[in-house]
Design a protein that fits this description.
The structure is a homodimer. By secondary structure, chain A is of the alpha+beta class. Helix content of chain A is 28%, strand content 29%. Chains A, B: It comes from Hypnocyclicus thermotrophus.
Chain lengths: 378, 378
């Protein structure tokens, strides 16, 4: 079987490799440290900076298909690998567009895919520009944003002095009913499969996607519309692999694309237990150009992130995991990160239940019990 | 979390460790070779003979709970480990009984659990003894039997000269309607969970369990009876861990216990995709004394073994795996054994389908396409 090279050693790589191991598909990981969640179960690994061109070339030389579990990587070196005739999925063109959120928006707008209204920040004309948007207004860095970083919400004139300095754009603040997401896969034959529309809830403190409810509690029409837009997105990108498409559902039931992740996504973790084919197996199928798998939802589900407890830095300690096992149809995922930090993504829990409210309450109960701490407060 | 030490580096260890990795439960494997299916994904491994007492003690020293994925191990050293205060699950008492099929039978008979009628082979009285049983009669080695080895069926007087020489017993040949099996788990608190009754079909050529059909196509009464007997078995054994109980269903709808496997079992592979909790996660829960998981069957299923193609010895090559991905709800498991041999267990395929006949035909279609071969015929 073909060997897959993965740039990044985190949990998305790990969960991909767990699926690959099931089928004995060989993997090799470029990781900044070993052991890491992904490198400790891959067939081989290279320790190095994820921006180190030589290390990426070394990885490419050792595998048949290059992919990545993070989007902050050097596009130039991916292009070089492609020019050498090696497959990179999603392609360098896709990641180039995704990395710069303004390019993402431009592409989507060119294809008439709805997004919130936006404009590049014009530093020479700041006041007039902001007046046009009104408060609150969202400012986003073109590049480098992640899990709430690179996003600044200006609530009043007082915030103007604190605006993001690097290249950025203003975006209309969307008062949304819900944030939705869809996982969608496309293989090199152009076959496309969408997963159910899910609903995301974000932690107010950390702005990290916190809880995923499946299926989203929305009308059938809105669900179909979201799926249609997701398909348009992946076609516009000419994307091969698996993608998480995030949406705003506005108060007027408009669906706007917020952003696109070119990889397995937090909002798709639930697929491991709740769908016929997990997002990770689907990812492998897509980039190895196998037929895509069935995406039927087998059960309603709630996924909740397990973050490092506030106040704790240092060697990871897991507390009260037995409490999680007491809850029905509750699945514990611990990523195996050796060091915990406040709000670091350390694991997740998925709960299945016919009754979505029970799934949510059980997931919350599990998270309240389970603690990721370290020996000493730090 | 507690570290689990596993004696054996094969596919049962591998699939257990895949579940352990999900939760970052640390594992260490004693394996005769590395890489092996289990040792290449465990946190640590020891290379050594599985009968080497020193290596087993080394394993025990490095973990909190000792278990095994094969039953042919030295009981004495397990007793020594237990005497040192370390947990061994299933306990040395259990494995001691299981290893000697005549002891297994005796125990079951003591608890009035039905088995086929049997007698120790009396070499001084062979002819009279065989006459009593009549032909065909089954002869089984007390110890060392596995996947059809250690079993001899005497069809006529001509076979008497070829009987098994080591300690053995005769067993009444059961003309059975079906062979059934149940996975059953029990934790240290005495909590018990049973899985659905499955139906096993054996390959005539190799006598290896070949196809598992879930649920068994039997009446509800027979299913309930089999479950009741399985519970009696695990209680009689005082077993902690997960057990595969194999049954004969006679033409008179009697249920006889054939034998007991004190570990995850081929007939339970289907649980990975078809049940809420897989046999592997259940195994971990049982030996770590967590509450046991829900065993609900989510879909009808058929599991089929993938054996090394006849005629091929050497470095494993997988052919036509893409054909498997074309089939709906079909899951490919390749164990990652580096060397193939004729009829060696190299993987399995599970197919889910509401319609059990479709599951069976898709599983057979998958197996017809997929071939495990090597570069050269050998």
């Amino acid at each position: 079987m073909k060997t897959i090279g993965i740039i990044g050693g985190g949990q998305l790589g790990k969960m991909t490799i767990l699926e690959a191991r099931k089928m004995s598909i060989p993997t090799i990981v470029l990781t900044t440290e070993h052991p890491s969640p992904a490198s400790e179960i891959s067939n081989d690994y290279i320790v190095g900076d994820l921006y180190d061109d030589e290390k990426i070339l070394e990885l490419a030389n050792k595998c048949d298909v290059v992919t990545y579990e993070i989007e902050h990587i050097n596009v130039k070196i991916l292009k070089e690998i492609e020019n050498q005739g090696k497959k990179v999925y999603p392609s360098s063109n896709v990641i180039e567009i995704i990395q710069d959120k303004s390019k993402q928006k431009k592409l989507l707008n060119n294809y008439n895919i709805p997004t919130s209204y936006w404009e590049y920040v014009d530093k020479n004309n700041l006041k007039i520009q902001i007046e046009k948007f009104g408060f609150p207004v969202v400012q986003k860095s073109c590049t480098g944003g992640y899990d709430g970083k690179g996003v600044f919400i200006l609530k009043s004139k007082d915030d103007i002095k604190n605006i993001i300095k690097e290249e950025s754009y203003f975006e209309k603040y969307i008062k949304c009913k819900k944030e939705l997401a869809i996982m969608i896969a496309r293989n090199t034959n152009g076959e496309i499969k969408t997963y159910p529309v899910v609903e995301m809830a974000f932690d107010e403190k950390t702005n990290i996607c916190d809880t995923v409810i499946v299926p989203a509690q929305i009308s059938k029409e809105i669900g179909e519309k979201a799926k249609k837009i997701a398909i348009e997105c992946i076609k516009a990108l000419d994307g091969i692999g698996i993608f998480g498409i995030e949406f705003f559902l506005t108060e007027d039931d408009e669906i706007l694309v917020n952003e696109i992740a070119p990889r397995p996504h937090n909002s798709g973790h639930y697929t491991i237990e709740a769908c016929t084919t997990s997002q990770y197996e689907q990812f492998l199928r897509a980039i190895l150009n196998y037929p895509l798998g069935d995406t039927t939802l087998l059960s309603n589900a709630c996924m909740i992130n397990i973050l490092g407890e506030d106040g704790y830095h240092g060697k990871t300690k897991i507390k009260n995991e037995e409490e999680v096992f007491k809850l029905p149809k509750t699945y514990l995922h611990i990523y195996g990160k050796r060091e915990t930090r406040p709000f670091r993504k350390m694991g997740h829990i998925t709960v299945l239940n016919k009754d979505i409210n029970k799934a949510i309450s059980n997931a919350k109960a599990a998270r309240e019990k389970l603690k990721i701490i370290s020996d000493s407060l730090g």
